[in-house]
User: Fold these one by one.
Assistant:
Number 1:
Amino acid sequence: MSSHTLEAKALTVGYDGDPVIDGLDLTLPGSGITMIVGGNGCGKSTLLRTLARLLKPRSGSVLLDGSAIAQLPTKEVARIVGLLPQAPVAPDGISVADLVDRGRTPHRGWLGGRDHRDDEVVTDALQVTGMTEFAERSIDELSGGQRQRAWVAMALAQEPDILLLDEPTTYLDLAHQVELLQLLVRLSRERGTQVVVVMHELNLATRYADHLVAMRDGRIVAEGAPGDVVTVELLRGVFDLEAVVIPDPIAGTPMIVPVDVHRS
Amino acid sequence: MTVLDTARTAAATASADRLRAARRRNAVRDAVLIAGLAAVVVALCTAGLVFGAKTLALPDVLRALTGQTVPGVSFAVVELRLPRVVGALLAGAAFGLGGMLFQTLLRNVLASPDVIGISAGSSAAAITAISFFGASGLVVSGAAIAGGLATALLIWVLAYRRGLSGLRFVLVGIGVAAALQAVISYVLTRSDVKAAEQATVWMAGSLSRSLWDQLAPTAPALLVLLVIALLAARALPVLRLGDDSATALGARPQRSRILLILCAVLLVAVATSLTGPISFVAFLAGPIALRLVRRDAALPLASALLGAIIVLAGDAVGQHLFPITLPVGVITGAIGAPFLLWLLMRGRTRA
């Protein structure tokens, strides 16, 4: 459904010294939910931030519909690619409605004039994320799960075709993690939004991803459907984890059960 | 997640209408607020023209303003009171807007130019020019502008580590301010009595130098800077979401911030060159404006108007409320210092 493609070509990214990402190629599948997994410091967040043009690659490039993203007008990119950063900061006292409304920025002209559609899109974003009843509340009064949903709503108001999320479940309890992931599934299924998530939680990643990208030391080690990718060997190779993989009793997707060497 | 399953129904339309109504309410409220602040500014300006050593009749003042010669009125209004009011208005707006820009861009109320040493830099350069070189008039103004710019650059260089952190900027700025205070003390102790007195008066922050020959270069400069800053500040609502989100929304945070900080430094330096450092105006206007406005979009204009109100009102109080005439900086300092302490005690320094 989605008409835009995002890819990385021979990407090398790093601050000083050794690059965090080294000569990486990635083409996003064009639909569904892609989850990027890997151990701490494997470069998965760096990859996402580079895809979102927050970081400039040392060499190589990120291509949006075949053109280098750095060359495209940033506002034009913002109408296609949305981002939920890892630790977003809201101004003190801002209301949910006001925050979500700022997602419309790339669709506005220089004079900032609003049109009728802005309200509809904002309303819709609030509704989809279940935030309608909190619209007038201040962000600081919300729980962690609600706050995260407010930020997702802001990203949705941007109406991106490709939505990037950097560890969106980090500060959430399990119930809210699942709730957020189900929301992403709905976005992907019902609106055809391409969703790309950097995930820490392996079992949730295999459960909700259509496409899994496993990284280690700044390189992609394996990618594909979770059922094909997640094996005992991969877990050993990517996470240094001894585990068995069994089918998830509900979804049938691979479920990872760590082996505790001290007990077995 | 039952809400998720609700399709676009009448309820959705109703909530869209509710949102629209709420936003319109906030917009109207902010418009009323801005109009109210503007009315206060106009009232204070009028009072500044009417009251003085001698109270004049408003019709006479208006006739004098339109260029008619009114004996006993024209000179006082056109040559003495009008430049003072214009200077207070522009310098106040410049301090208010410049201070708010510093505070919001560096995410810290304490990152105000009068706390982090930019005003102290202007003062140090100005009194050095007065005391050691016997300078006066526009030369002192030029020195004040150069001193403010150089101090801002110095703090920037010392505080910059792959990006700008508000807290580091504040800490470095306070250190720089302390060093500049030492410079100021040194200059004062080495000056002869007359120059030291002149320098002390300059540092108190006063509108008594606001006459047409001083305003001729500074007023147009401040006006242009105010317009540029107000236009550039349109990026503020998005910038306040942090660099990552701002970039994702198609803004260029780094570039906007440099432009806005440059505007703020120039506003404060040029205003200081006219009036001396009127303490705490830059520090006060932003936080007050933030508590009054509903939407970030109204913040820049509200801060500028509040800055003008504080300086105009402070000058009126200093001139008329006490048996002796006090410089405006003394009045604003008396209000500002307790406010600073209150903010610190409440622990609310995020902007």
Number 2:
Amino acid sequence: MGRFLARRLLHLGPVLLGVSVIVFLVLHLAPGDPAEVMLGANANKEDLDRLRVQLGLDQPLHVQYLTWIGHVARGDLGRSIWMKRPVLGEVLERFKATLVLTGTALFLSTLGGITLGIVSATRANSLLDRCSAVASLFGASMPVFWLGIVLMVIFSLWLGWLPASGMYAPYGGGGLRDLLAHLVLPAVTLAAASITIIARLTRATMLETLGQDYVRTARAKGLGERMVVWRHALKNALIPIVTVVGVQAGYLLGGAVLTETVFAWPGVGTLVVQGILARDVPLVQGGVLVIALSFVLVNLAVDTLYAWLDPRIKFQ
Amino acid sequence: MRHHLRRNRLAVVALIVIVLSVMAALAAPWLPLSDPDAVNTPSRLKAPGTPGHLLGTDEFGRDLLSRLVWGARVSLIAGVGTAAAAMLMGVGLGLVAGYYRGWPETLIMRFTDILMAFPFILLAIAIVAGLGPGLRNAMIAIAIVGFPIYARLVRSVVLSVREREFVEAARALGSPDRLILARHVVPHLLSPVVVAFSLDIGAKILVTAGLSFLGLGTQPPTADWGSMLATGRQFVILSPHVVLLPGFAIFVIVLALNLVGDAVRDILDPRTHAA
């Protein structure tokens, strides 16, 4: 296990380096002059030249990258042009909100997906199983932002049960109850597609596992059905499920951008979109880098969990 | 068997929906529809069923039916175009990586690894941030983000095919690489690539609509389902149809594409269906 983890960590270095190069390049190879964008079309040449030197834009691209990555390594993501504040603090503050949202959505989709998948597998071809199949098809075809708006219209505007946007009420809010009330709609919206994917995979894997000889032996020994399903079958079915849950964790981190925009959730996603519209390169760079890094770490965690669940993997 | 038939029947209905949508989108200039961009403020936010406006109007009094039909052109072109571009790039790079191996393979596969280290939509957003908002740039971004899946798929198939006897025989007979690839390797890619492509179009329509919804794709006043949803959002209390209709259009077309994609997979790759 230790060797596996060491090898995975070694592999992480080049990936992180590549991620940083991509983040740097996509925002620096853009057409147009960032200094002109920042100062506006009416700026004079002296001001533009001074800002270019100040930002290091007069240097060759590789020098700009090395300077930037050196700052990033020291925890300095630069200053936001639009907010006039250090990017790191702003991104980390917003990242907490993104983590709360994606964490809750992941919890809901894992719990809901596995439960639904097991029930579908143990009652294959029942009405519930068919409903689950239809829901999975719908889940893969429904735009997440549209689902969010529909839920918002029904539960906030028509029924008035839940708040429509934000993380806390603007006046008198701030408690856990307030947070939970604001969290329900965005978390359910974000989790919807993942629940159906996890449920379908759990169903397929459980059906395969339930047909194995050792499950028949367990039943023949007189074990109760609940024990057979939850204790014996689920444990072996978990390996592919863990992988798909890991993939979904990454998907949720990315998909949060749209959900956050719909519900005005103050996460990194909304910050990045606002940064793009304000042409704030350091802010966008910082936001994208933090989400990409967390995505890479989630993948590492999934691989490690995978190796822990299936000891054969480390020998491959 | 009954299940298979029912599934195919659904796929036939889905195919009819797609054909009708494509025909309507192609024929949009000749259909008796009002100008999708014509502003008519006095008749803004009219409900569906209003005389002259079958599906009502939006916040600028523009006819929603007309905008939905014209928007279908944008969404379908974006979906098919980005999926095709991603497929072409991915197939080309996957062929090179799988057949020639060595440093081209290392370079291509490490590059795809790095691209896949980003959440899909986030990387597309970052690329659009670099290139600037707009439909063309959004499509370029989605194609770039989408090609690694094809590259990996194609490489894995080529890796197994290149070791087969008939390829070895062709090589022994002195056939040039280009001929071996075209005549002996590429035919083996058709089935998996067609399956992946047919399932990919719907996903690409969703991502394009997502970028437009964020204000990074199609720019106003061009009609596009994603941007219609974004601008209509502010009027959702007064006129929910402004938001519900374009979202429903996306949902129906993507659902139809997924059903047809599933059917294509069932036909071309029965093992997946059996699993």
